[in-house]
């Protein structure tokens, strides 16, 4: 599904980097990363968008209930990749933080 055709209700958005890395590890592809400046310290905060499905909602519930098992090396690799993507958006002067959404068909 392309982002252009997805409504806000079809996007599952998370701010938690660890949860995003777990979802990516479990083969839920990241479709958007939206980084914006927030808070009184003007920090760059990233929101990771996934396609909203019953499976991803169930997986989130299992994550919070500590009922998931992931392959640790793949998880760490995905965590580092997501961190690099958010750092790249923040440090890139042409990224348009806070004004645009970065879209990825495949992570």
Key terms:
single chain; 107 residues; alpha+beta; four-stranded antiparallel beta sheet; 3 helices
SSE layout:
Elements (H helix, E strand, L loop, with lengths): L10 E4 L2 H9 L4 E9 L4 E9 L2 H11 L7 H20 L10 E2 L4
Antiparallel strand pairs: 1-3, 2-3, 2-4
Helix pairs in contact: 1-3
Structure at a glance:
The chain has 107 residues and is of the alpha+beta class. Helices cover 37% and strands 22% of the residues.
Number of helices: 3
Whole-number tally of structural domains = 1
**Contiguous runs where pLDDT drops below 50 for at least 5 residues:** 98-107
Total strands: the figure is 4
End-to-end span in angstroms?
Answer: 14 Å
Order of helices and strands: EHEEHHE
Strand order of the largest sheet: 1-3-2-4
Largest sheet: 4 strands, antiparallel
Q: Which structural class do you get from the secondary structure elements? A: alpha+beta
**Overall helicity:** 25-40%
Mean pLDDT: 83
> Which term fits the overall shape?
globular
Beta-strand residue fraction: 15-25%
Radius of gyration: 14 Å
Can you walk through the features of this model?
It is a single chain. This protein is α+β, with helices and mostly antiparallel strands and 107 residues long. The chain has one domain. The chain is 37% helix and 22% strand. The chain contains 3 helices and 4 strands. It has helices at residues 17-25, 54-64, 72-91; strands at 11-14, 30-38, 43-51, 102-103. The chain has a 4-stranded antiparallel beta sheet, covered by helices on one side. It is globular and about 35 Å long. Residues 98-107 have low confidence and may be disordered.
């Amino acid at each position: 599904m392309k982002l252009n055709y997805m409504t806000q209700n079809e996007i599952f958005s998370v701010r938690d980097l660890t949860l995003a890395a777990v979802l990516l590890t479990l083969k839920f592809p990241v479709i958007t990363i939206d980084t914006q400046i927030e808070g009184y310290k003007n920090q760059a905060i990233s929101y990771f968008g996934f396609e909203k499905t019953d499976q991803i909602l169930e997986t989130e519930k299992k994550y919070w209930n500590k009922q998931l098992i992931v392959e640790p090396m793949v998880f760490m690799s995905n965590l580092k990749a997501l961190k690099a993507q958010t750092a790249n958006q923040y440090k890139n002067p042409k990224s348009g933080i806070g004004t645009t959404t970065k879209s990825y068909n495949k992570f």
